[in-house]
Amino acid sequence: MLPAIEPQVLIAVGLAAAVTYSLRLGGLLLASRFPRSGRFRRAMDALPGALLFSLVVPSIVAEGVWGLMAAALTAIVVLRTRNTLAAMLCGMLVIFAVRKMGL
Amino acid sequence: MKHRKPEMIRGARANVPVAASAMAYGSVLGVLAAQKGLSWLDMMYMNSAVFAGAAQFVMVDMWSNHMPIFEMTLAVLVINLRYLLIGASLDPLFSGRSLLHKMGMMHLVADENWAVTMSEQRNGSATTWFLFGGGVFLYLAWSSGTLIGLLGGGFITRPEEYALDFAFTAVFTALAVGLWRGKGDVLPWFVAGAAALLAHKFLPGKWYIVAGGLAGAISAMVGPCESDEVEKVEEVEDAAGY
Which residues in chain B have Cβ-Cβ distances shorter than 8 Å to A89? Predict the structure, then answer.
């Protein structure tokens, strides 16, 4: 039996979806109008790394010294093995062990 | 378009680690959603239409019998503002593609498959179908995770206990390592990290990602050129007697 979606849910989720899709596509379409060289290009080239680094730094720091250790181990493992899954598991294992021991 | 299928499969495979943690986290969202009285159809509608983890957590949190439609939309806008930058950073990957192609691909861009694709692109082997294949796979993992949580009543109610919350941090750290381009990145990454920490401390929600990303990019724009930097390093090395 199919449950119905209430009209207000339809609208609320629909608006959230429209906003999210506009941001995703809007960023891409705006960027293709930007200059292809010069200082602005340098900013655009630096953006992916800066964005991803910003995503992780606060959550690493929030874990304290062990967070930094876990992140360093993750980085070393991925550099040595090129294996993202193994690197992720090593980082998680450090945090898991630290929390289990209540450090 | 004869590489479409193998590229999608390659993208899906590369997203296995991130999809596993997304699925675990999805099940947590499903448990919360069940408590708020969402039906599986509500959940699937939200998964398919919005497809953005953090925003969905906030939406479920704000869920009630009388939907706060305006506040919810505004919250989603703020949380997802980073997608403007994520979209912009995908421009080189999409260069030369038609508008229709861009419109079809962008809906399934999430933090995870974006990060995997960016790191793949550093090796010069990412394509839009690789990105899309990862997105489809991630969508399936995320959706099944949320449904398992919603219908199964949460077998992972405390993901922190298993360090599952750190899975995202660890996998994004590994992917960030892949984006490192050398000395020229020292300044933008340092500025990005500092700005992200400050914003995380003083601003709510996901502003820190936007603040860090923008600050890092701007520092690369106003900072010294790559060639200047090489000279500077040589000067330092001369001074040190190398």
Answer: 170
